Amino acid sequence: xxDLVTVGHFTIDLILSPKxxxxxxxLGGPPTYVxxxxxxxxxxxxxxxxxxxxxxxxxxxxxxxEGVDLSGLKLLREASSTKFILKYKKGRRRLQLRxxxxxxxxxxxxxxxxxxxxxxxxxANELSLDAIxxxxxxxxxxxxxxxxxxxxxxxxxxxxxxxLEDIRVLRLIDxxxxxxxxxxxxxxxxxxxxxxEKVHDYGARIVIVTKGMKGSALLFEGRLYAxxxxxxxVFVDPTGAGDAFIGAFLAEYLQKKDPTWCACVGSSAASxxxxxxxxxxxxxxxxxxxxxxxxxxxxxxxLST
Length: 305
Hints:
Strand content: 25-35%
Structural class: alpha/beta
CATH class: Alpha Beta
Distance between the termini: 37 Å
CATH topology: UDP-N-acetylmuramoyl-L-alanine:D-glutamate ligase
Largest sheet: 11 strands, mixed
CATH superfamily: Ribokinase
Number of strands: 17
Shape: globular
CATH architecture: 3-Layer(aba) Sandwich
Number of domains: 1
């Protein structure tokens, strides 16, 4: 029995930013950030993913050393891994897809899988509704980050957001997390609260929208909360911060803790990731809790019901 299983593609990322003087390939993708953030808080984590012959052995070694179960990882020698170039300029990010691993199908999901929470996190539409429907039957809590369902790629691999084509996935989930731009594409609504309420009406018990350094919004039990961002010691790179947020959130949520506290822990975990390039830096449990406590006790605000 795992505490948290993340389903989606690992990625090999090249991150370009004025703050990064020596760009290098780095291990990325939701399975990395979600799993490592949750692992720092003591969760038993696993992944279901596919990579190709170009996936470095040192990435596998690192994940195993950090305590991530890789029994659900398929290495396909005839395929490529999913690869992105991420370019940051003036606070905006541009993505370019440079490689794509094969899709994750329902037959890739073991019937014997046991997980308290399963987090569905595609990056390039690699998951089908059939696969997600099967995952729904294997857990009590199904979480979704829809980003990979909202991306369309041109001939050069450049990414832009599109509308969610199949809303049936929203009826399967318990926890939803995305950015502001993404939830607007999911719902077609510009007003943040109305958009969050619409996702809630589909069936999600908890709806989270991350807003970068402006913190996050959390909706549950008819109440909307504003959760501030934790301040990092130094801000280097925002890549993976949202995934670290939900990984830490879910690690706390499976302990049946107050969702506002879980969001504060998520904010704290995200702040540590921004202190390094890519997936280089994750805080330890004690220091993650320290930052989370500072905003939980003083700065979380309940907005009007």
